[in-house]
Amino acid sequence: MEKAALIQRIVEQYNKAKELQDMQDPTFLSVIGKAYHENYLSRLIAYALKKDEGFLRGLLGLSDKLGERTVECEKYMDGSRADIFVVIPGENITVTIENKTDTWEHDDQTQAYYNWVEKNYPDHANYFFYLCPNYNPSTPSCEAYKIITYADLADLIPGGTDDPIIRDLKKHSKEKLGVNNMGLQNYDIEVIKHYDELTQLLSDAKRNIAAYQNAAIEEIKEKLTERYQYRFPMGDEWKEEKNDGKELLLIQTDLKRGIISSYRLYKPEWKKDDYYFYVEILFQYKENYGDIRGIRYQRTLCAPSKEDAENIKNSGQIDFETPESENEYIVLEKSEQYDFSDPDVWDNPDENWKDQFVKEATEILPRLLKKQSKAFEEIKGKDILNGK
Predict the structure, then answer these.
(1) What is the separation of C-alpha 302 from the centre of its chain, rounded to a whole number of angstroms?
(2) For the residues 229-252, what does the mean pLDDT come to?
(3) Which stretches does DSSP call E strand in 286-328?
(4) Is the pLDDT of residue 69 over 70?
(5) Residue-level pLDDT at 338
(6) How far apart are CA 219 and CA 72, in angstroms?
(7) Residues with Cβ < 8 Å from 376, sequence gap 6 or more?
(8) Averaged pLDDT for residues 26-42
(9) CA–CA separation, 148 vs 100, rounded Å?
(10) pLDDT for residue 331 is more than 90
């Protein structure tokens, strides 16, 4: 059997097994169809770590009482985001958790998080955990991380808790993610047998996609250079471009998901105080970020925090065509998603895909940039963070 066909067969059977298990003795996450969604699970775990000191002490192997703590999800660390980050100032302790359910580590994430924490908290006792279901045999690249399974996690949650959310998390961790084979029978053997091949195929596909995306973006930039010049981030600095009188666009890429999922374009003047406007090419197919089968264009306002985003949204200062707030991002307008019907485009993108994408982008982006300039001018000089 061809490798790709084998992988597809395994994944299909794997998903069917998960769906069957979810219908048996359900938990809250399985009822809403998010039983294996990393972000939802991380938020529940963060909640439990904040609320239940015994759970946190058990995780750290400590017996003494712990003081107040801050718990963050999606903690920004030098260009990427750690799933859970805890700081206990009184005891000079930090805890970093990388949560993997159906995914594997990419781009040495754990090493990057380790380096950031050690640099920013040099006088703390820094704990690192790599959390994954019992059926996920992935391992972290950084040896400082301790691997714990969801079965381990369930055992660490005190059984006598009276918090219904934490009780449900304990049940979910043990019964949905703490099992060894998901009922796959002989398919789990195939997964393990072909694990290295699977990860290599996925890694190759990601690199292939990134190469096609970059090639297409370069063509788009070439077609827009008559009007715009560009500046790119180089680490913490910006690569300088010669000013020839053209309008300047800054370009940033979102690499937090391991493969390029979006390109942000914005003018320097759109960055004011603690917020900025940008136009984005978002690679998104259904739930998968970075997948070139689906492309959407949108105008977005990035605020300092979710609370600031809500204040802006409710202030009436900006007219939303598609009111939407997710964390600190407010989507002002988004196009319909452009889906490419060829099922093989993810594995074997061709020139037809690139030509179509370049044509669409060079027609859509100038219109969105013009509308974004107009939107910024309308609120220029106003204190939109406070609705003034």
Answers:
(1) 16
(2) 71
(3) 288-289, 294-302, 325-326
(4) yes
(5) 78
(6) 39
(7) 269, 270, 277
(8) 79
(9) 11
(10) no
Q: Which stretch of DSSP H or E encloses residue 93?
A: strand 93-99
What contacts 132, CB < 8 A, 6 or more positions away? Answer: 99, 100, 101, 138, 147, 149, 150
Q: How far apart are CA 154 and CA 176, in angstroms?
A: 11
Compute the distance between CA of residue 215 and CA of residue 36 in angstroms, rounded to an integer.
34
d(CA 48, CA 173): 12
Tell me what the mean pLDDT of segment 100-107 comes to: 72
DSSP state of 386: G
Structure tokens at 377: 């001018």
Of 258, 264, 262, 291, which is closest to residue 276 (Cα–Cα)? 264
Give kind and range of the element (H or E) at residue 73: strand 70-77
- Residues 129 and 59 sit within 8 Å (Cβ to Cβ): yes
Predicted TM-score (pTM) of this structure? 0.53
Express each pLDDT in 130-163 by its tens digit: 998 876 767 888 999 999 988 899 999 988 888 9
CA 87, CA 129: separation in Å to the nearest integer? 14
Tokens of 115: 């380096």
The helix/strand/coil state of 107 is coil
Output the CA torsion sign for 159, 162, 166, 172.
positive
Two tokens at 360? 């669409």
Report helix, strand or coil for 329.
strand
Phi first, then psi: give them for residue 153, nearest 5 degrees.
-60, -45
Q: Judge whether residue 202 has pLDDT over 70.
A: no
Q: How would you classify the pairing of strands 125-132 and 93-99?
A: parallel
DSSP label at residue 367: H
- What is the sign, positive or negative, of the torsion defined by CA atoms of 52, 58, 61, 65? positive
Average pLDDT across the chain, whole number: 79
Lookup: tokens for 286:
């259904």
Q: What is the mean pLDDT of residues 182-209?
A: 58
pLDDT tens for each residue of 9-21: 656 655 665 565 5
**C-alpha angle 269-273-274 in degrees, rounded to nearest 5:** 110
